[in-house]
Amino acid sequence: MTQSVIDELRQDRHFLVEGISRLIDASPKWNKEDRARGEATFINLIHQGIVIEAKIDTINALEGSSE
Question: Where does the pLDDT of residue 31 fall: very low under 50, low under 70, confident under 90, or very high at 90 and above?
């Protein structure tokens, strides 16, 4: 079960990375208003990625300590 949770988190992380990549690609075309929203979204996605990484690390650490 734990591996499926990690796989789901990795898939979520993959979607976040794709979203960040799309934002970076689109950013040169942004006007001032779009830039503010885009940068806020970028920060939000980065934060979500950090949370996902922390969850993966925690699960891996718990699995390692139970062996």
Answer: very high
